Amino acid sequence: MRIEREVPFAGSFDLVVCGGGPSGIAAAVSASRLGLRTALIEKNHFFGGMGAGGYVVPLSGFFHQGIRVAGGIGWELVQRMLQDGAAQLELPKGHVSFHPEYLKLHAERLLREAGVTLFPDAVLSGCCREDGRITQVLFVQEDGEKAVGGTTFADATGSAVLCRFANAELLPEPEKYQPMSLCFLLEGADVTTPLLGGCIHHDGKTGRSVNAELHAWLAEQPDAPQFGGPWFNALIRGNLLAVNMTRAAGDAADPKVYAATYAGLREDAFRLVELLRKGFPEFRNAQIAAIAPDLGVRETRRMRGLYVLTGRELLDGAHFDDTIAFCAHPIDIHQADGNGQRLAELPAPGPIPLRCLQSANVENLLAAGRAISCDGEAFASLRVMATAFALGEAAGVAAWANGDAQRTRAQLQKQGAIV
User: Fold this and answer.
1) How does residue 93 score in pLDDT terms, banded at 50, 70 and 90?
2) What structural domains and CATH numbers belong to the chain?
3) How much is the pTM?
4) CA-based nearest residue to 329, from 95, 100, 82
């Protein structure tokens, strides 16, 4: 059934970015700083993605073997949080512990300072396409549906929402997606003993990031739900810990699955904390202070680009003439139906070609962040937030450069995005 309706027009832009997580922020800021009229559409009333709404701490992927390989806008945002005393660089591994509220604060400041036109609390509802190009996107805010036009469009939604509305080619779905996690903030835990004190800073000097003792104990409990890690991270300001331990597989792009998973993992969070309270004196006074408003989603849909990057290429040290970013995180695959995790370290920073951001069949569509064109093995490395920032910045510069790879690379190097 076809429904025709009149929708108010909210403006025309050189670049329209859909999704306000790390890749969307960097895409919008980089393009706007280069003089493009830029709009950013985000479903939440804040910006920052999984770090802000999912309490996914720390920021990972800036460093490879102690050497920083990602800079630009993502690193600028880290510097702002460091100056505010709301972040800590965990060297030599290079993870960045941070406070989610300061990520929201500085992300919006960056966007507004750059002059980006913001549409928060806006849910994508469709798009218009002519002659293989997107001409407008539609979205719904509290006061109704609206449309914006654009020259170039960037999908930074994480789940390739714009790609699907535009009938862009997608890569085949995996048999099982990596599981979702619902992170939460914990108060009252005693971090003065070795049980927790050695694992809340992911620097590689004080032991493994995963608390192996708690993992082994939880695995023996017959009434424990599925879990991962657990990982505990300092929020730097205050005495709260960000905890990542719940786990459930499913298609996060399916609204019914997402809602059911969120409800189930909320129950699991309380069950897991209660188990820890009974089993370890360090948790006797621990309580959940807050549960993330968004699930931590590791994997959903991905666009088919002009090139599909593979994990084997990252492990073999491939070279590309159109490299616009590097990934540094290990290939990190979380078991969908168990408590395990498989890691494969990259021998060198992994190059990501611009062609992975360019749609195979929609001329003016770029995808950044989790929607990028790659296989599951490569995705398991580049899905982290530092890489998402780098991919978004590349998308914004590519829009300015009209897709020219050499101009894009040169400008990214000038901006310090490629270190």
Assistant:
1) confident
2) 9-175+299-415 (3.50.50.60), 184-291 (no CATH)
3) 0.96
4) 95
